[in-house]
Design goal:
Distance between the termini: 40 Å
Radius of gyration: 34 Å
Number of helices: 28
Structural class: alpha+beta
Low-confidence stretches: 1-8, 136-140, 394-398
Shape: elongated
Number of strands: 21
Helix content: 55-70%
Mean pLDDT: 80
Largest sheet: 10 strands, mixed
């Protein structure tokens, strides 16, 4: 009981110490809380946007598929023979089956999915796809069987600006058909833009006689059904579950979402470093007070707990504000950019913010942990200091004659490099991100050694301006202070430079590739499933001003049920007739009887298709092809295969083509020739053909690229701004804390102007040190992004292109900002008289 008064007095003293710090330095706590809030807000916002977009996309997929228990899907847009339907319907374990014709269609400028259904069968298997005619005296009960009847989902009605009873022209598969909107699909998912007509009308009026695209199933015994269908299905059909369809949609954007999540956490990491900087300075300023409490009996744990309590308060405030701001940012991002943040993965869906309590709790904990760790590390250092030594010292107590250890940084950098080289996990570059984190920690740990090494040659020089020499020797003698100020800015700068280098390299590679593949003078492409038949192709070839035409066909081809379809491209290729194919690998000496196929780089990485290897594609059965080469392709992340159009037509019997590249006679007007070519097409197809020139395609592709990375640029900018705010706050606080030092220098004869020069030099040197360290570390991290994370995420490779302008701009900005901050803070610190500044030293 006798110890209770001492313990109580110790708690009071500690409370007074913490409360006094908050009262006299509120800006420091506000700055650190804002840094945590920014990191939590960005991370939570990106996570909310990703989750909301996926939920909306899944709703749209379920709306089109009707949430069937199991489906038999065609592997390509060519469909499957309708004679498969009775065999599937009678298979073991199948209770009922509903055949479906699926068409990409348009009503005016509005895109939708048009489904042809057997209404009776669909009512039992996928009732959400069955239309409901309006009630009234004129409503006939047989409207659902009328070949001219069309049912639209609410989303399709709104987007196409039509009403029930209107007659509309529906364009699909190269046909224009007049239909009457007779009802809605009340059970359809809200984000699904779909239309439903009778299956017989779909096959007859849209040229799909004898073909269907899928068979939806209701099951009585799932295991029996899957086993029976696995033996029954032909090569051009694949069994698909709801889980597989969800995985397909998720795989489209998974790498993009993971990379955005990781990048958003950069701001939170930077905020943690800023807390560390601010708390390190605060602990150093209160070192004597902590030492005094230690001599009065305060245990080390109480000192650590005191500073950690400050971190907890910072974390709670910052994380709470961050969650609220993150929800607002997510709403704004979905409203202005869409669910894919401009990347084009979820075109046609309208996402709404879906609050995720588990994610909110997770980001709150992350923000809290960042603040606690940023406080605990300097607190432990303060608690370990001997009280007697701490009472005599404040600040960086490193002996200038002792070397600064470099090996911890080297070990972390080496460990990060080795970790980054490990293979991907489930297609995600998780080890790459872990390696980057270790390398980032190593770079920050090496800042004191780097600052000492950089200033050593200057410190050995004698003579010169006294203020400049004082600034150099201060940086040389106290590299720990520089490291404390710079840890946040080095981290944010390194990550920004790494991302900027990766984006510059990626954009440069795409630009070069577009210049290689867009070699024609004019391009024509059909829409809504239309195609150029042989008669149309002959008319186009005879157009005046056309020197030569190359026709191609592009179809989605499903290889694995839970992966997005690859693109099957058929165009003239045998005998090297396609000079625009950018080959990066080539097979040697193919057998004469081999069917050649050229695979894109993403397809090679996803499926392991190497040159010379024999592969099987679900085309006209199970056709064996030999990989003749690998070509560079930045346009199709899911992969693509190219076959010669002659082989394709012989295998499939498909005579349609949907793309044309035209070489024109010298001096021909591309616009006039394009108009003449479209004028030669039938009216039913003319409105579904888009004519573009290479420059337009190139500009559009690069615009889409920049839009995809717009959020990346924003996150980079926020991270660097947080880092700049951190270095400004830390430099300012460090300068103000040296008030007694400045007073002593005034006693020794330095003027206020000389002190300002000294501080400007110190700030510039600290800023330049941070810029050089951040740029050097960023260029190293960029190699991990370019050569590890990017290939593992997106299956593309590229060469490094360094953004020189960005590097120079960042260096100038950091150097100028640090110098300006030091000078402005120095005016306050040197504004008092010399005697008043040093009075506490007497």
């Amino acid at each position: 009981m006798a110890a209770e008064p001492g313990l109580l007095s110790g708690r009071l003293a500690l409370g007074w110490l913490i409360g006094g710090e908050w009262r006299f330095h509120p800006a420091r706590f506000l700055t650190t809380a804002i840094a945590i809030a920014v990191g939590v807000a960005l991370g939570f916002a990106v996570h909310l946007v990703n989750g909301s977009a996926l939920a909306s996309f899944d709703d749209a997929v379920r709306g089109v598929n009707g949430a069937a228990e199991l489906s038999v899907n065609a592997t390509s847009a060519l469909g499957i023979d309708e004679r498969l339907y009775p065999r599937v319907a009678n298979a073991a374990g199948v209770a009922d089956a509903s055949p479906v014709v699926r068409l990409d269609a348009r009503i005016g400028g509005t895109r939708l999915t048009l489904l042809g259904l057997d209404v009776i069968r669909a009512g039992a298997v996928t009732p959400s796809l069955v239309g409901l005619p309006p009630r009234g005296p004129d409503a006939g009960g047989d409207a659902v069987f009328d070949e001219a009847s069309l049912f639209l989902s609410r989303t399709a009605l709104v987007r196409s600006h039509v009403a029930i009873g209107d007659r509309v022209i529906v364009s699909a598969n190269g046909r224009n058909v007049r239909l009457r909107v007779v009802g809605t699909l009340p059970a359809a998912e809200p984000d699904a833009a779909i239309g439903v007509i009778d299956i017989a009308a779909a096959q007859w009026r849209f040229g799909r006689l004898g073909r269907i695209d899928r068979i939806d199933l209701a099951l009585s015994d799932r295991e029996a059904a899957e086993a029976a269908l696995a033996r029954l299905l032909p090569a051009d059909a694949i069994l698909s579950t709801a889980e597989a369809r969800g995985a397909q949609g998720s795989a489209l954007s998974r790498a993009y979402r993971v990379n955005l999540d990781m990048l958003a956490l950069v701001a939170l990491l930077t905020g943690g470093f800023l807390v560390y900087s601010a708390q390190s300075l605060s602990v150093a300023r209160r070192q004597r007070a902590f030492a005094l409490l230690r001599t009065l009996g305060m245990p080390r744990g109480a000192v650590v707990a005191a500073v950690v309590v400050e971190g907890v308060a910072i974390g709670i405030v910052g994380a709470t504000v961050g969650l609220v701001a993150g929800y607002g940012l997510a709403w704004a991002a979905l409203h202005w950019f869409g669910g894919d943040l401009g990347a084009g993965y979820f075109g046609g869906t309208t996402a709404r913010v879906v609050f995720q309590p588990a994610s909110a709790a997770g980001f709150f904990v992350l923000g809290l942990l960042a603040a606690i760790l940023g406080s605990a590390i300097p607190a432990r250092a303060a608690a370990r200091a001997a009280p007697a030594a701490a009472l005599k010292n404040a600040g960086d107590v490193l002996d200038p004659r002792r070397r600064v250890a470099w090996w911890p940084a080297a070990v972390l950098l080496a460990a990060g490099g080795a970790t980054a080289l490990l293979p991907a996990i489930a297609g995600l570059p998780l080890f790459g991100f872990v390696g980057m984190a270790l390398m980032l920690a190593g770079g920050v740990a090496g800042v004191p050694w780097f600052a000492r090494t950089l200033s050593a040659p200057l410190a050995r020089r004698s003579g010169g301006s006294v203020p400049v020499q004082l600034a150099i020797r201060h940086l040389y003698g106290a590299p720990g202070e520089a490291a404390t100020a710079l840890c946040g800015i080095v981290a944010s700068t390194a990550l920004m430079i790494a991302m900027a280098t990766m984006v510059t390299s990626f954009r440069g590679a795409v630009d070069t590739w577009l210049g290689q593949v867009l070699g024609a003078d004019l391009y024509l492409r059909t829409d809504a499933g239309a195609s150029f038949d042989p008669d149309m192709r002959a008319r186009l070839t005879a157009t005046p001003g056309v020197k030569s035409l190359a026709f191609s066909r592009q179809l989605p081809l499903t290889i694995v049920a839970d992966r997005p379809p690859i693109s099957l491209i058929a165009r003239p290729e045998r005998g090297g007739r396609d000079p625009l194919l950018v080959l990066i690998e080539r097979a040697e000496n193919l057998p004469a009887a081999a069917l050649p196929v050229w695979v894109s780089e993403p397809a090679q990485r996803l499926y392991g298709w190497d040159p010379g290897e024999t592969i099987i594609l679900p085309l006209a059965g199970r056709t064996r092809f030999t990989v003749a080469g690998v070509w560079r392709d930045y346009g199709r992340q899911a992969g693509a295969v190219l076959v010669d159009e002659g082989d394709y037509q012989r295998l499939t019997g498909d005579t349609g083509r949907d793309e044309v590249s035209a070489m024109l006679d010298p001096g021909s007007d591309a616009v006039a020739v394009g108009e003449a070519m479209t004028a030669r097409l039938p009216t039913s197809v003319r409105g579904q053909v888009e004519v573009t020139q290479p420059a337009t395609l190139r500009r559009l592709a690069l615009t889409l690229f920049d839009r995809s990375f717009a959020v990346t640029y924003l996150l980079e900018a926020v991270a660097i701004l947080v880092g700049l705010a951190g270095v400004a706050a830390t430099m300012s606080a460090q300068t103000i804390a040296r008030e007694r030092e400045f007073g002593m220098l005034r006693h020794l004869g330095l003027t206020r102007g000389q002190l300002g020069t000294m501080l400007a030099t110190e700030g510039a040197m600290v800023g330049l040190t941070g810029a050089l360290a951040g740029i050097g570390l960023g260029l190293i991290l960029a190699q991990v992004l370019i050569h590890v994370i990017n290939p593992q995420s997106f299956n593309w490779t590229m060469t490094t292109q360094v953004p020189i302008g960005t590097l120079l701009g960042v260096s100038a900005a950091l150097t100028g900002a640090a110098a300006a901050t030091a000078v402005l803070a120095g005016r306050r610190a040197t504004s008092k008289g010399a005697v008043h500044s040093v009075r506490e030293d007497w």
